[in-house]
């Protein structure tokens, strides 16, 4: 019997590439589920949890997305040996895709605004990626297509394919992992799952899985100021635009194809000051820094918990710790940068700490 990894067939490189990604997955344990014991809620039968996605090899929730996008592109025949992989991303998706491109020995180009932080650029380059800069965030899409055309490569296009690259019925997607880890908790089926949306891929996977499994769980998307998703969810108008989010990794200035509004039960709009205050309060609770999008998620979790407490209902609320705050030391954890770019956070901080003390 001929082993598929050594067979001299036209698909030899393809099979080896898939094997490398699957082997990388097998070397990785599942991410931890962290309980957040908050006395103001736990005494009322309300439990909060975070699934810690910062422990993936490339450091964020986007590791799952990048793995799915690579497998999707490989199995569709869009990537072959020597292909240049191109992505429009200035954040964690580019870092994670650079990781998988290096794993497969493929060139990788991240198309991003010139304003991208030096820390993210350094991480992409650490994994062997190259950064291509544009002047404005809205220019990344066309620029990525052009780079792919010039190199004869493949534009990964996370904003289109994120919602379809993951098998939401099972296959250890993030939703299945969440529900498996919750099985022995006192409220095993969450009342709410809270996520942010950049592409919309995570909310689509979780929303579809919840329906497929016939769970009573509802899905809430926490949307930062400046993002278009909350207005789109209310109106259904896909032509809407917005200034764009200042919370890195979530929110978008345009409606992305992967954001499926009909899967989302509720949107929570979160001001920048609230996201920063919640990020810092949660970092103090955990004894380690978390990123700003996790702060946005935490604000929505606290709002839902307050509503449940007021209504006298019990249950669990589950969200994601998206990435480590170490990537944001010069920005969101820098008081002067926050004052200059985000404004006054004092009142928001006082409100959040009253719930987390």
Word description of this protein:
The chain is of the alpha/beta class and 357 residues long. The chain folds into two domains: 218 residues, Rossmann fold (3-Layer(aba) Sandwich); 101 residues, Rossmann fold, CATH 3.40.50.1100. It has 14 helices and ten strands. The strands form two sheets. The chain has a six-stranded mixed beta sheet with strand order 1-2-10-7-8-9, sandwiched between helices. Strands 5-4-3-6 form a four-stranded parallel beta sheet, with helices on both faces. Helix 5 links the parallel strand 4 and strand 5. The longest helix is centred in the C-terminal third of the chain and has 20 residues. It is globular, with a radius of gyration of 20 Å. It starts with 11 loop residues before the first helix and ends with a helix.
The description of the largest β-sheet is: 6 strands, mixed
Helical stretch count? 14
Overall mean confidence score, pLDDT: 94
Count of spatially separate domains: 2
Q: Whole-Å distance between the termini?
A: 63 Å
Beta-strand content = 5-15%
| Helical residues, percent | 40-55%
Stretches where pLDDT is under 50 for at least 5 consecutive residues are 4-8
Q: At the third CATH level, what is the topology name of the largest domain? A: Rossmann fold
